[in-house]
Amino acid sequence: MNKKLLSILSILFLFSLLVISDTTGTAASVVLMSIKIIILHNIVQQ
């Protein structure tokens, strides 16, 4: 249940960053970094 909540929060976080990236181009790199961190985090949890 905690993993589900964490994944939902991370998705919302990424979505908000994607909205921000529409206005600022630098936020796109932040989104890519966040995706990498989340993927690594999920791999570590398994």
Automatic annotation (TrEMBL):
Q: What is this protein called?
A: Uncharacterized protein
Source species of the chain:
Brachyspira murdochii (strain ATCC 51284 / DSM 12563 / 56-150)
Ranked from the top, the taxonomy reads:
Bacteria, Pseudomonadati, Spirochaetota, Spirochaetia, Brachyspirales
